Amino acid sequence: MTRNVVTIFGGSGFIGRHVVKRFAKAGWIVRAAMRDPVAGGFLKTMGEPGQIVPIRVDVTDVQAVRDAVAGAHCVVNLVGILFESGKRRFDTIHTQAAANVAQAAAAAGVPRLVHMSALGADKGSASAYARSKALGEEAVLAAFPGAVIIRPSVVFGPDDDFFNRFAKLARLSPVLPVFTNDGFKLAHTENGMDVDLFGSGGTTFQPVHVGDVAEAIWRAASDSATAGKVYELGGPRRYTMKEVMEMVLAGTGLNRCLVPLPFAFAGIQAAFLQFLPKPPLTPDQVALMRTDNVVRGGKPGLAELGIVPTACEAVVPGYLARYAPTS
What we know:
By secondary structure, the chain is of the alpha/beta class. It has two domains: 5-158 and 206-237 and 293-310, Rossmann fold (3-Layer(aba) Sandwich), CATH 3.40.50.720; 163-203 and 239-289, no CATH class. The chain is 34% helix and 20% strand. The protein contains ten helices and 15 strands. The protein has helices at residues 16-25, 62-69, 90-107, 128-143, 163-172, 210-222, 241-252, 263-273, 283-289, 316-320; strands spanning 5-9, 29-34, 52-56, 74-77, 112-116, 148-152, 155-156, 175-180, 185-189, 192-196, 204-205, 208-209, 230-233, 239-240, 257-262.
């Protein structure tokens, strides 16, 4: 019996490895396309011998992308970057490379294409990341009108770059910042006037579990009724930045002070931190954080795909416990 073949660009990444595992579980032959297939060798253990094949592909190389999608029944593009470095620019990866994949899939006659974008994708955004994601969606749909667009909020899981980042910071610093637009204002209380330091608590997020995202991609790829639709994925609850930091402290068991800071201060920090090899904060990320990262309604999401979202509280404390004090 002939088995379906899927090409997954970015298959060794945080989300990619879960998507690879989900397709392998369904019996598909998986081509896991990545820059370093040797480092992605661990993926082979997620399926039967020979079922998962890591292949070397640079998504900016048009011919390499064409070769990778030839004969595939489905293509999934998960490639993305959080900050720019060298030749890896937002426009190059999120827009031009996305167009390469979509054009190659269309030319090869691939029946299904699932493209990973992000909540907040917006051509009018102050963030280059958000603008490039929106332009990438346009390029994909222009080349492959039946593509499925997936827009997740911040994705959490044991190897995420969200809760883990703040947990690492908590181990190094006695304070955790909460950037807010409306803190440091007078507020009426039962005892008179007081200073509201945190205001609304900073940017609001709707974290979605990596397993739910992988399942959503699998179901979108498996159902022809999803063709041409945009899905916005968020978890069951919204959290302010202050609540996120409180969850980090509860999960790690670390006693740290939360300090409200205006976004102007974040911009100053980012101006220096952006030059580190792997910057914890960049000016573009500060611009992105000024907008809430939540599902706004009007588009289908996890519910329409038949998925019950996983709560942060059910998962996050389990993997943040590794940051707990040892003495």
